Amino acid sequence: TSTTSTTTTLPPTTTGGTYEVPPEATTEPEVAEEVLAGDEFVMDLQAHLLDYDLTPDVAWDGTPFLGQIFPQVACGETDPRACFSIEAFLDLFFL
């Protein structure tokens, strides 16, 4: 049994870069390390942002919302939706 692997690289963009990676780098760690290893810091993460309307003149009326199922809802804010603001979101990653 033989398998064939093809790695495609996309054209460079203004938001990041690409690597020329040989197909064997997908199955052989030593080859991948030789091609990709460096001294730079790499943070790889995936996250989901719950973006609620927090208009200051509209108080939360107690209506249930998806964020209530997550432990972050207990962050201490008067309006629990504020626990999911972009500021709180970034704070969880970087502070």
Compact description:
The chain is mostly helical. It has helices at about 30-35, 85-95.
Binned strand content: under 5%
Mean pLDDT: 82
Number of domains: 2
- Helical residues, percent: 10-25%
Structure characterization notes:
By secondary structure, this protein is mainly alpha-helical. The protein has two domains: 1-42, no CATH class; 43-95, no CATH class. Helix content is 18%, strand content 0%. The protein contains two helices and no strands. The protein has helices spanning 29-36, 86-94. The longest helix has 9 residues, at 86-94. The radius of gyration is 22 Å and the shape is elongated. The termini are far apart. The relative contact order is 0.12. The mean pLDDT is 82.
Features of the shown structure:
single chain; 95 residues; mainly alpha; 2 domains; 2 helices
SSE blueprint:
Elements (H helix, E strand, L loop, with lengths): L28 H8 L49 H9 L1
